[in-house]
Write a structure and sequence with these properties.
It contains 23 helices and 13 strands. It has helices at residues 9-22, 35-49, 51-55, 75-101, 106-119, 122-140, 143-156, 161-182, 185-207, 210-226, 238-253, 258-280, 284-303, 310-329, 342-350, 353-369, 374-380, 394-398, 416-427, 457-460, 462-471, 531-539, 579-586, and strands at 384-388, 401-402, 435-439, 472-477, 481-486, 493-505, 510-511, 519-526, 545-550, 556-561, 570-573, 597-602, 618-628. Helix 6 (122-140) packs parallel to helix 8 (161-182), helix 6 runs antiparallel to helix 12 and helix 19 (416-427) runs parallel beside helix 21. The termini are far apart.
Amino acid sequence: MTRLLHIPRWLMAALAFLLVVLTYPAFEPDFGVGLDSSYVWGFNYLFDNDYQTLTQLVHPYGPFSCLRLPLVGNGHYAIFLIFFSLTKFAFAWMALMMACRRKQPLWLTLAALVPACLYANIDVLLVANVALLVMAAIEKKSFWRFLVAAAIAVFSLSIKSSIGTSSCAVLFVGWLVLAFRHKDWKFTVITAASVPVMFLVVGLAVWHSFPVMWHAWVGVLNLVGGYSEAVLMPEHEGWSLLAFAVALLAFALTLKGQWARCLALLLLIPLFSFWRYGITREDVFHFNQFISSVVCFLILIALAQNRFCWLPWLSGIAAFLFLLVNFSALNTIGAKSLSAGPQNLVGRVVCPKQLVDESWGYIANTLSSRKLDDSLCAVVGNASVDCYPWEHVYIPANKFSWQPHTSVELASGNSLWLNHQSALNFSSHTDAVSFVILHKVNYGCDDGLRSLDGRYLLSDEPAIIDSLFTNYTLVDSGGWYGLLLRHGDGRFSPASEPVAELTVAWNEWVPLPPHPDSSILRAEVFSQPSFLGWVKGLLYKPDIYYVDYRLPNGEVVSYRYSRTTAVSGLWMGPLLQSYADLATFLSGCPASYLPVAIRFRTASMNDGDRPSRLQNPELTIRFRRALVL
């Protein structure tokens, strides 16, 4: 049986290149509008036109997000192709070298690395490369390998926070394993000291100043801590997920050799991170990310065994099949089939002219869909403009001067710190943006000001909304929605007057306290899951929270809300149910929709149901007047 140990390095490099060519993906650039497409436009635009502003934003994507999601037709796309190709080649090369050290059969290694290279995207490849470098550093007691891994991990934070945090987790666990295995405290201290040095060197190279860099690190921690609240309720196949967990446990228990277990330990936190992202979102993209990580990580771990053993391979294949069963149960509209091969390398890299030409056509159509009237553009002129909540395509479509708020695209919807940081951008007396395009979230219908995941737009980011209503006035509205102008004397004034505080039960109607029609009432809601709910939220999904509003005519309107930001105040009244209502209200007309009672519940509660064991039985509500005329 041919072993990789006897193959020269130049041939292994050739095999790694062959794996890259055979599994080269068909990149499908994104030219659309809306939440998921908007940051592609926005971040590529700022990278070319205002990199300093880009470094000051706090977002799941960082300043170098163009290395993951470039616009086709500019220099970013070529740099992205080079970056992706080198990252994938490094992965294939290091995986072959690891299998060589483990004396794995050549046929098995190549057969296994084909699906690993086929499924692995740039997120998985970067995390896997850090893990392979760290494991080689542990095995060979190599400082420079650990240093390179640290540099990649830190730089990954500037691409996407989830990639960087997973890579840093690998780095930390690897350092613990290195210290335990070698018990060389001098070497351990040196490797530990290299990490903050890399944070400083790479961070300054990316963010250009220490305060901006520190602000970015703090922002990443807030982003990671709040993401779990962004949860939907996809209909998973429970039995298939349970069977997957059993197969994964069997895989771990049947591994042979210390190095396979070491690599499994390094990849445990990233695998759990991909699980959390994949299981809490309804769209197939996030679950596909989890499948990619499972395929790639399990294959690497199996190749790290000291000797060939069928049981881990069979368990890993079973785990993959059970995930596919669950994937088929999700809403797979928009899912893309895997397409790989040398033809993609030719069409995307060697001869990309057709792709570029087609892309410019799509780009022109997208820009035209967000073109505003010439008279409105004349009003804005060269003044600074921002978009809320997220549609950045308005900026290049109308050639506006963009001044984005700190956390664009509702990234602060689950973090009080980020919410406050963005609110400061609109309340500053010296450098606040002049105009804000307050656009519709759903352009096809006027459906109740629903924003991300069916939440209420005026409750998503309370501090931002209050700052906008305090410092800006509506100067134009239309089918696209409206333009807000910075004004020293806004229609509303900020207030924080307590009205009442109550302790209530879940799923029970609570009368709203009387308040003047000239004020805006908010309710600060304090609730905590039970220990069982906390465990469920950690390992599977947190609960989904709803607030119901009862209007005087008996109608009940329901919106989702985030438990995290509810403590800063959910919008209670007047209840504006459409963009037309909001435009009328901002123009000075009183609103007619004043709720008389509210009710808090979770997705599992129907009328009359008692709260489940996932929640503490009571919650506290503190009413306050947030804005006054």
